[in-house]
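Supplementary notes for students who missed Thursday's class. We covered one full example, reproduced here. Read the sequence, then the structure, then the short commentary at the end.
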Amino acid sequence: MTTPHRQNTRITLAKRPEGMPVATDFAVETVPAPSPGPGEVLLKTLYLSLDPYMRGRMSNRKSYAAPLEIGEVITGGVVAEVVASEHPAYPVGTLVTHHSGWQAYALAKPDAAPLPMVDPDNAPISTAVGATGMPGHTAYFGLFRVGKPQPGETVVVSAASGAVGAVVGQLAKAHGCRVVGVAGGPEKCGWCVNEAGFDACVDYRDPAFPEHLAAACPDGVDVYFENVGGAVLEAVAPLLKPTSRVPVCGFISAYNSPSDAVLEAPDAWLKRTVNPDLETRFFLVHEWFEEFGEATKALGALIRAGKLAYRETVVEGLENAPNAFLMLFNGANEGKLLVKVSERENG
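Structure (token representation):
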């Protein structure tokens, strides 16, 4: 069945990118939107989250998740509104998060897979795929469950002005740590210090970056929250202690490489080159799925109290998602990168 008068625009994988994605790697299709069957709801996408992990799913490489198939809708988290419902717990107008990807409409069956509701009183709804959603959860659990910072320790976070890194730094600071960020350019570094409250932030584009990082960490590094890899990892490595902890969230510096040779994960590289006994691991935020609700409320409370700053770069229009996606790799976005797909129909 289809829903009359609703057209679903969706963006699919036309071919696997070689290096940096280009426009011809994607295809835009318009098809009739489906109608919900028994127990289903029709979701209208309001905000689409753009995240670095999506690049990995476009490649046919072994990873923690299966690669996208050619012709498949690009994966991605969304904030959506229920606009047609055959499920009593999800009436029309309900706001939810879902993983329906780069498309305007999608069906969901709440009884078959979780469909978390979004409370607009907790924080602005866009943050449900940002500071109070997956990036915020990644920062919260990665820092506290893997990094295990103690008050007085030095925490370094790469991609410090990004959706995950900014939350990591502020949580660590509130926990009583010395926080040093690594970001690209004086503007982003300035935001980390002046708005997010970091103790220092070092520009990785500066030719003297390793020396500046060492100066900012005179007692070494106790926790390094890894988002980048590459030259940043190499600069942090000499500052790590035998007791350091390194949560590995990602390593965006390698995502567009056509060669598998540079794809050694940072935790494996550290154990091979620095210390085989170093406490480091790659983690997936869904390890703590059952606790997401708790984290969402805690992060929302910090935002409402003015204790958690965040930035969003919002691009208008689903058709602009492919070009906007590239901002993740050239550093053009500030904070969380979103596509505003549509307005709410109800409320």
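Commentary. The mean pLDDT is 93. Residues 42 and 107 are 5 Å apart (CA to CA). If anything here is unclear, bring it to office hours.
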